[in-house]
Write a structure and sequence with these properties.
The protein is built from 10 helices and 8 strands. By secondary structure, it is of the alpha/beta class. An 8-stranded parallel beta barrel has the order 1-2-3-4-5-6-7-8.
Length: 282
């Protein structure tokens, strides 16, 4: 993992530090984290307590089904209605927003029966998100499967997103496709095929976003659908530019740290927030 100084320099903050010192604090968006590797061994109470103490505002709970290493928090589709109500009340009493659920649903399979199964899987997570008061569920395209024609797969994924988005819309749950390296033109096509307001993107801060040191080209293509950001420590990624683009687009969602902790988890989270705050002053 790169250290904080490298993160700030690689993000362009070193060039703007004197100006930032006098800038108004705070963007219109919020800081949270994804449990994934960061909190895989913590129960829900510990996650909420630590994030509140460190000044974070939101969390995306990765589920055990979607995380091979497991997740100790226990917020899964298997929860009873009474258990779901207890989880919802716990978040309502906290300063923390349950932003997304990290579902394992993916739609790149060439097998129609498998895609149908995955859409049904996604609907289970939509119901869970609705019951818990979460705003969205993460879904994913993992590669292109075995279909040689990527346009065919793109249309299939778009159709699955449309079906799931139409199911989720009346429940006020967003379907969020986590961008990987499928090809950003194809990602845009998926959104256009889905054509539902409840379907959008999780911007994943991948190297493929960067063209000639800038994410502007990619953001201009996909920005209208970005609802959440998975932010990281990633050397050379232009985070300052990304946050500026989000700010200018009046983005009001969550930027969620995704990755492991280095050293003590509380100290790490406080340092990450300090770095994030420097990069998001406008």
């Amino acid at each position: 993992m790169k250290n904080r100084r490298e993160f700030l320099i690689g993000s362009g903050a070193a060039l703007t530090a004197p100006w930032l010192a006098g800038a108004a604090a705070g963007p219109g968006f919020h800081l949270g984290c994804v449990t994934h590797t960061l909190f895989e061994k913590h129960d829900l109470e510990s996650i909420i307590t630590i994030l509140e103490e460190c000044g974070y505002e939101g969390v995306e709970l990765r589920t055990t089904e979607g995380s091979p290493a497991g997740q100790k928090h226990g917020v899964e589709p298997s929860l009873s209605q009474a258990e779901r109500a207890r989880v919802r009340k716990r978040f309502e009493k906290s300063k923390l927003k349950l932003v997304n659920l990290g579902s394992p649903a993916e739609f790149q399979s060439p097998d129609a029966a498998e895609r149908k199964k995955q859409v049904a899987r996604g609907k289970v997570f939509v119901d869970l998100a609705h019951d818990l008061g979460a705003t969205g569920i993460k879904v994913r395209p993992y590669g292109w499967g075995t279909e040689p024609d990527h346009q065919v797969t793109t249309r299939r994924i778009g159709a699955c997103l449309k079906e799931l988005g139409e199911y989720a819309a009346p429940k006020k749950v967003d379907i969020l496709l986590e961008i990987h390296n499928e090809g950003h033109k194809e990602d845009k096509q998926m959104m256009e095929i889905a054509g539902v307001k409840s379907v959008g993107f999780i911007w994943n801060c991948d190297p493929a976003d960067v063209v000639n040191g800038s994410v502007k080209q990619c953001f201009e293509m996909l920005g209208p659908w970005v609802r959440t950001v998975h932010t990281k420590y990633r050397e050379g990624y232009p985070f300052r530019e990304l946050y500026t683009l989000l700010h200018n687009a009046k983005f009001t969602g969550y930027t969620l740290y995704e990755g492991p902790a280095e050293g003590d988890i509380k100290e790490f989270l406080k340092k990450f927030k300090a770095d994030w705050t420097k990069l998001t002053r406008f």
